[in-house]
Amino acid sequence: MDALFRKSDRLLANTSTEIVREIANTIHWNAQLISIIGAKGVGKSTLIKQYIKQKYEPGDRRVLYCSADTVDFSTRTLVELAEEFTVRGGELLAIDEIHKYKSGNTDWSREIKEIYELYPDLKLIVSGSSLLKLKEGDADLSRRAVKYTLAGLSFREALRFYHGLEFEKWTLDDILKHPYDLWQTVSTKCKPNALFKEYLKKGYYPFLLEGEGEYHTKIEQVVNYIIETELPQICKVDVANVRKLQALVAMICSEIPFELNANRIAAALEIGRDTVVEYLKYLGDAKVLNLLYSEKKKIGKLSKPDKVYLENPNIMYALAPTKVEIGTLRETFAVGSLTESHNVEYGKAQGDFLVDSKYTFEIGGRSKDFSQIAGIKDSYIFADDWDMPDGAKLPLWMLGFLY
Description:
Layout (H helix, E strand, L loop, with lengths): L1 H12 L19 E5 L6 H12 L7 E5 L10 H10 L4 E5 L5 E2 L2 E2 H11 L4 E6 L5 H4 L1 H6 L1 E4 L5 H9 L8 H6 L1 H9 L4 H10 L13 H20 L7 H13 L3 E2 L2 H8 L3 H13 L3 E4 L14 E4 L2 H7 L6 H13 L5 E3 L6 E3 L3 E6 L14 E5 L9 E3 L8
Parallel strand pairs: 1-6, 1-7, 2-3, 3-6, 13-14, 14-15
Antiparallel strand pairs: 4-5, 8-10, 9-10, 11-12, 12-13
Helix pairs in contact: 3-4, 11-12, 11-15, 13-14
C-alpha cells in the first residue's frame, strides 16, 4: 500500500494545474461513484489528477490515485485495495483505466459495485475507454454512478488552451439567432479564420501541449491502440480480425468522402456484411468514427450508416494517405462539433445535415450558395473562409463554440 501511495504522489506531483478543462466545474465530485469515459488521449487521467491535486495537500493519505493497467493489481483485487485504503482512513479512491482490470472470473464492475455497497463513505472515481458502458457491466451499478463523457478540445477550448483566449460557450440556437454578436466578441480578440485552420490540423487532443513534433504520430498510435487493444479487450473482437479493422479504417481514409457500401467493403475485406456494420459501430463507439444515418431510417443493430466520417479533423491529417480533402474536412468538423450535444442526421437530397429534426445545414467554402437548400425552412450555410455572418450564411468556426 505504501508503494501505491508513493506512486500516486509522484503522478500527482508531475501534473500541472495551470490549465484545467471547464467540465471540471460541472462534475459533481462529491458523488459516491463517478465514471468518466472518453477516447484515449482526450485528457481523462489529467482531469482526475488535477482535481485531486487542487483539493488535497501533497502526501495526504485520505486520497489515492492509481491505474488498473499496472502490475500493482496483479497481486490484489479492487475490493482488497478498497478495504485496506478505508482501514487507513481513505476517503477518495480514483482508479484510472478501469476497463483494463481483470481478476480471475470477476470483472471490474462487480467489484466496484461491491465496494460501493460495503463502503458507503468512500468516494470512487473510475475512468475508462469510450467503449466502456456501465450498463453492460452491471445495470444496477450504472444507475448508481454519476456518468460524464469527455471529448477532445472544441475550437473554443483550444483558443483558451493554446492562445490564452477566454470565451463563453454558445448554444446552437443562440449562434443561429445572434451570430453577429458571437462574431464581434471573437473577432475583437483574434483572427478566428486563421486560428481555425490551425485547429483543424492540430489542437483537438490536449497532448499538443507536450509538443507539436510528434502530434500526428501520437494520434496514429491512439487509433492503433484502440483497434489493437481496446476493441479485442472490451468488445471481444477476434484478434485475428484486427488487421481487417485497420484495413477498414484505411479504406475510409482513402475514399473520403465516404458513402457506405457495406457489401463492397465486405468483399474487399473477406468478412460478412453484418460484421462490417458491427465493426463500424464499434469504431463509432470508440470515437474513431462518426456514423450518420438518414432521417427516414429506422436504426437497428444491423442497420448500416449512410455516411461515415473520421471522428475529428486531426485524425484526418494523421491518417489520410494523400492530401486531405477540404470539403470532407469541413464536414468532419461540423459533425464532430454538433454530435456532442445534438442529433445529427444525413441530409441526403436536401442539405448536408438535418440537426435535431429541425435545422438543415449545408457546409462549404466561401463560394457556397443556397441553391441546394433554397426554400427549406430553418436552413443555414456554415462556410469556411467566411469573414462574418451574412444573413443565414455563417462562419464555420462558430460551431466550435458549442462546448
